[in-house]
Write a structure and sequence with these properties.
- The protein is an alpha/beta fold and 203 residues long.
- It has a domain at 42-138: 2-Layer Sandwich (Beta Polymerase, domain 2), CATH 3.30.460.
- It is built from 3 helices and 7 strands; from the N terminus they run αββαββββαβ.
- A 5-stranded mixed β-sheet has the order 1-2-5-4-3, covered by helices on one side. Strands 6-7 form a two-stranded parallel sheet.
- It is flat, with a radius of gyration of 35 Å.
């Protein structure tokens, strides 16, 4: 028989685990300050503005930076734009003409680098006028649709440059007085050699 003084065994409830502190919401990244608009050089911008004012959406300003302005014109408008560049902006010669082949676009771009000897304010300026011709998959230079109007009657200095683009890229310049080959032999029968699909044959 248990004694009245016998200590009774008590079952203590299990201790509850300590509650985890509530997670703090992730801090939002600080907002970046708004980018300041790029300030274009005033003189060069005035040149591009005159071209746009004259031709509107017939031209596209590709770039305006110190001593350089880039204008892109459609093939049917490039002759008129070049004439304005000479008569309205006082550029008087083409320094070089280059070509760029874009087979993915089925076009060949022709780029004129235009400067001025006579206008001192344009002494360091270069206006880059570009346009594109249709690119033929199987070219027949002079007999296919890869043609552009020549600028020879506007800038005499393009005479040899356009001839080189004709033979190297296959772009025929309508109105050019002498669309003969310049560097390649007259009996050249391969692709124009600066097109990207031209393959150099084994030595």
């Amino acid at each position: 028989m248990s004694s009245d003084t016998e200590a009774k065994t008590e079952t203590k409830p299990a201790a509850k685990p300590a509650a985890k502190p509530a997670a703090k919401p992730a801090a939002k990244p600080a907002a970046k300050p708004a980018a300041k608009p790029v300030e274009l050089p005033a003189f060069e911008k005035s040149i591009s503005d005159k071209v746009v004012e004259k031709f509107g959406d017939k031209v596209e300003v590709e770039f305006v930076k110190e001593n350089r302005v880039g204008i892109k014109a459609k093939r049917e408008d490039v002759h008129d734009v070049a004439e304005f560049i000479r008569d309205g902006l006082n550029y008087d010669h083409v320094e070089s003409v280059s070509g760029v082949d874009y087979p993915q676009d089925k076009e060949i771009e022709v780029v004129y680098h235009i400067g001025s000897y006579l206008d001192e304010s344009l002494a360091k300026q270069l206006l880059v006028l570009s346009t594109r011709a249709q690119r033929e998959e199987n070219p027949l230079p002079g007999k296919d649709a890869t043609k552009l109007p020549s600028l020879r009657d506007i800038f005499y200095s393009v005479e040899f440059h356009e001839r080189e683009v004709f033979e190297m890229f296959g772009v025929y310049f309508t109105g050019h007085p002498d669309n003969r080959r310049l560097l390649l032999p007259e009996d050249w029968a391969d692709l124009p050699p600066l097109r990207k699909d031209f393959a150099i044959k084994g030595r």
